[in-house]
Amino acid sequence: MLYREAGQFKTSYRADQALFPIRQDQIGIILILLVAFVVVPLTASPFMIDSFLTPILIYSLAAIGLNLLTGYTGLLSLGTGAFMGVGAYGCYKLTTFFPGISIIVLIIGSGFLAAAAGIVFGLPSLRIKGFYLTVATLAAQFFLSWCYIRVPWLYNYNVSASIEVPERLVFGIPITGPTATVTTRYLVVLAIVTVMTWAASNLIRGRIGRAWMAIRDMDIAAELIGIKPYQTKLLAFAVSSFYCGVAGAMLVFLYLGNAESESFSINQSFLVLFMIIIGGLGSLLGSFFGATLIYGLPIVMRMTKESFGIGVTSATLEQINFITLGTLIILFLIAEPSGLARLWQIGKQKLRVWPFPY
Amino acid sequence: MHMLYMIFVDPFVQMGSAPDLFAQTLWEGLVAGVLYALIALGFVLIFKASGVFNFAQGIMVVFAALTLVGLYEHGVPAFLALALTVGVMLLLAIAIERLVLRPLVNQPEIILFMATFGLTYILIGSGELIFGGDPKVMISDKLLLPSGAYQIKMLGGFVQMQKIDIAAAIIASAMVVGLGIFFQKTRIGRALRAVADSHRAALSVGISLEYIWVVVWFAAGVVALATGIMWGARSNVSFALEIIALKALPVLILGGFTSIPGAIIGGVIIGVGEKIGEFYWGPLFGSGIEDWFAYVIALIFLLFRPQGLFGERIIERI
User: Fold this and answer.
1) How far, in Å, are B151, B234, B271, B286 from residue B21 at the CA level?
2) Distances from the Cα of A298 to the Cαs of A44, A100, A236, A294, in angstroms?
3) What domain range includes position A209?
4) Which of B21, B112, B134, B136 has the smallest number of Cβ neighbours within 10 A?
């Protein structure tokens, strides 16, 4: 009833191609942003922000990064964790070299380091594709993971072999390190994620995104209509790694506070991959849904256990979590391969025609 | 200059000056390679017959070994436990075909591949839930597998060969020969090859896809069980083996996804290359290069021969 676009006439192509062509969507996104930027910091408890919202936003960004590569360009990567690590360790080295530069600039800058790493490990994509390329990205994962342990230069020869986040101020307010408040860090993460999501949505609506999708749908046909496959694939690797790198840097600097190589292991790669499978391959919104579900599920399970006092050990809970995750993935692949994002779309369509079936 | 010397000259000098040590490293690489090859064999079986790149093969290895040891710990005699484990693998094959493959028939390969990720997680979770997560000792002596080692005098020193490793090599070769005969000579084997060539053509001559898939997944399960016993006898049975299972992927690249001899030879190349690389070149980079050395070998290889050593050359047309 409320969600109906009848009567909203477009008089220019510009209006027709806008990011949110329907007025209700515009109002909706403004409301969501308003809630996220104003209402949440004022009302939500620090626990809620710190254990749910901040990490979910960060993982959403990583999922968007992987989605650009896997969902939009059709190149399956298992190196997400490693590329997030490039961002985190890169940002750490940058703060060491340039202590005077604003940390936000450095976090974004570390994304470029990750993009460079992505290009290097994306080089084999000219010769190989499909599963072979997936194995090549595994090479990146294992090689970089090894670097995070064996190259002491990366963690400044710290005895604990981990990176400790230094305190950094922006406009006199601490945003990283132990003194930064939960809310400040949340707002910084939210701002970066919002801007980068907006950038991604424009990227995929434009020439570049269409080239990616053409490569995904049929690489030979794409080449025939004048898309250079090599540059396009490498660009996908670069942009994807950039997003993952920024997510990794934020994960360490704005959420965890310290990190070691284990934070960027292959399990991290799997986790992000599961997020985009369940959320929806080739959907930005799906990346947020997937991150929420995959990250939230174990926490909700743990909290349910604590509040009801069910007598299972945490090890058992983790195993149940594994089984649930695996089952969910298979169920989604069978029932709805386009993920939660597709369910959302169906729901919206139903709302448009309600109370009629179609 | 010194660095170049350390990389290109020094390791070979070391090899020449202590040939017995070199032979020992070679042997260990060979054994590791045989075990990688066994995991890869399971992948190849399934890929050949159903076009599914089964990521869960490594976990099936652990799951099979865990079931075997777990049953034994619950008081089942060793050989009965072995038979029961084979039964469990059959049930698993039927369940996978019923619940995962059949609903996903005709989906893109990548979807099936990701479904095996889900399978991996289910197997990890349920395996630990049923049998506990702590490492277990493989019951190799109860299964009449030899233990101990031979000391062989050669090249002016001693080379130590574990009897279990020799047994592993023999069993692996027997399995490859057996599978080769099965594929070439039996009725089911021919049906398998027909399905591998074309699902639709196979269906049209009356081959039941469901049946064939259960057969291959069961065969892969049995291979996984054998691999699990061998791995378990060398180290403990736990989900730490999972990471070793990922080593089978470069083996596949080297050997090609569709070739059984390729899996074996690829496994041996990776195993030997990795051990020798770690032993002679590892100290230069700080040890632990085993983790990624195999992938680097495979990547370099890919650049020159993307279809693998024995893989079928895929000609792509528009």
Assistant:
1) 13, 20, 16, 20
2) 21, 39, 31, 8
3) 44-264
4) B134
**pLDDT tens, B132-157?**
767 777 776 666 666 666 776 666 66
pTM above 0.90, yes or no: no
**Residue of chain A nearest B253, judged by CA positions:** A132
Helix, strand, or coil (residue B120) = helix
Which parts of chain B sit beneath pLDDT 50? Answer: 316-318
Q: Is B258 a member of any domain?
A: no
Out of A135, A149, A326, whose CB is closest to B250? A135
Distance from CA of B264 to the nearest CA of A (A): 18
Is the Cβ pair A330, B296 closer than 8 Å? no
Q: Do A150 and B306 touch (CB under 8 A)?
A: no
Please report whether residue A107 resides in a domain: yes
CB contact under 8 A, B306 and A149: no
Rg (CA), chain B: 21
Could you give the number of structural domains in chain A?
1
d(CA B61, CA B139): 15
What are the distances in angstroms from CA B249 to CA A173, B58, B235, B245, B270? 49, 10, 21, 8, 10
Q: H helices then E strands: how many in chain A?
A: 16, 4
In a domain, B157, yes or no: yes
What's the structural domain count of chain B?
1
Q: How confident is the model at residue A66 (pLDDT cuts 50, 70, 90)?
A: very high
Does residue A286 lie in a domain region? Answer: no
